[in-house]
Write a structure and sequence with these properties.
single chain; about 290 residues; Rossmann fold; 10 helices; AB_hydrolase; catalytic activity; Pimeloyl-ACP methyl ester carboxylesterase
Length: about 290
Amino acid sequence: MSTTPDTASGPVTSYAKAPTRTITAGGVSYAYRELGPKGGVPVVFFVHLAATLDNWDPRIIDPIAEGRHVITFDNRGVGATTGEVPDSVEAMAADATTFITALGFDEVDIFAFSLGGMVAQALVVEHPELVRKLVLTGTGPSGGAGIDKVAGVTYFDILRATLTRSDPKEFLFFNRNATGKPAAKAFVKRLQERTVDRDAPITTKAFQTQLKAIKKWGRSAPADLSKLTQPTLIANGDHDRMVPSVLSNDLHRRIAGSELIIYPDSGHGGIFQFHDRFAPVAVEFLAR
């Protein structure tokens, strides 16, 4: 098992300073970062569409890493991880399982956002014994209404962002209003806090393959989520244009005993807009 680097003052708890490491499994070299104190069940973060290690909000990661061993990673074909992106969410889940078991863990908590939440669902359905707790944010179930439209929304917002020389996430993740616009700028700025050892950006081909996988997920038969026994926290904004907010309610209905938080006047990135409210809730949920 890999261990978190310790400094003279204790373990690294700032995501901006977490070293990037690699581990090879199944012929793939997985890039990952880890921080927080060693021991116990780690929290593994599953990232969103087009994202690499550099796309996690430090205001979400750092509070969790104060008390927990946190691991972020690039799945196959993404960022600095080798290989090619699979064209199905289920295959992505198989790769994530390979990565987790290669690190020597037989039980993890998963914190997932957007596409990562789809991968997490596929993983827990296939390997329920591997997952202790689930945090599913900005995501939806297989067969969820509107998920197959993600590509259209994404390309439209990439165009809008290009025309205004903005980051596409400002359009995709946040409302374009008086609260959303400054929250978007602040979020994008936080993603730049790490200045050294930054990840390789996702390739266009990898991004397009991820979009195909999401479309397939949206058009596939719904999975039986009634089997899930893991404590599950679900969160989103009330105006998610990428993965419609109603799908968070759908997940909540289908996963027995799950908890649901819908943040007002916010979009796909509701947890980032309301990081000061959401991070303590996530910390408490994972520590329970």
